[in-house]
Amino acid sequence: MLKEIQVIGSFQFNTEFTQAISVIESNLFDFDLLIAKQYSLNNIDDAFTLATSGKAIGKVQVIIP
Length: 65
Fold this sequence. Notes:
This is Zinc-binding dehydrogenase. By secondary structure, the protein is an alpha+beta fold. It has a domain at 30-65. It contains 2 helices and 2 strands. A two-stranded parallel sheet has the order 1-2. The longest helix is centred in the N-terminal third of the chain and has 11 residues, at 16-26.
């Protein structure tokens, strides 16, 4: 009874998920523009170097075969 922790949270999507799917299906946006560079798992060190450098414009993606 001492030092009890109570966690209260919430998570809800109303229309956002449906809207996101519509945008993806419309092909009006090139989502590849969000990716700065892709690396294979063998080059994970290079991926972390770029991701932590502050020079990546977009996401650094690691591809796992």
